[in-house]
Amino acid sequence: MNAAKAEILLLAPDLLGESLALQLTSEVPSWSIALRSDDLNRHPKLVIWSLDAAESIALLHQELIRLQEHWQPAPVLLLLPASVPIAAVDLLSLDSPGLLQAPDLNTLREAIETLLQGGRVVRLAQANPS
Q1: Residue 1 pLDDT more than 70?
Q2: What CA–CA distances, in Å, run from 115 to 86, 88, 91?
Q3: Out of 17, 22, 79, 82, which could bridge 12 as a Cys pair, Cβ 3.0 to 4.6 Å?
Q4: CA nearest to 98, candidates 126, 64, 63, 71
Q5: How far is CA 26 from CA 32, 45, 64, 75, 89, in A?
């Protein structure tokens, strides 16, 4: 008996989303990654929200709440770019079970596995002293 594939919704800029989906499903064939909610066969087990820019903690917080309410009980994994003009303490105040800044593919895969098992993942890049 085959276990059902874990459906994951990946909200990302087009080329990044397509590339990530292909790389992740190549590494873990038991995942099914949809790039649009219309492509889902059922409610996702995880929502990944990848941002190419984040300017305001207030807007980030508001959109995160909207995603969490819409897709509950699926956890939301927030992917941030390497450089964001938001203080780490503010990013850590976001109520998200998953928060990664500029992860490599292996870190992202491990985070997805952890979140699918009900865990939490937070990894921010080290702040550069100015």
Answers
A1: no
A2: 24, 21, 18
A3: 17
A4: 64
A5: 10, 19, 28, 22, 35
pLDDT at residue 126 tops 70: no
CA-closest candidate to residue 10, choices 84, 98, 94: 98
- Cis preceding-peptide flag for 29 (omega within 30 of 0): no
Q: pLDDT tens, 56-107?
A: 899 999 999 999 999 999 999 999 999 888 999 999 999 899 999 999 999 9
Task: Give the residue carrying structure tokens 């002293």.
Answer: 129
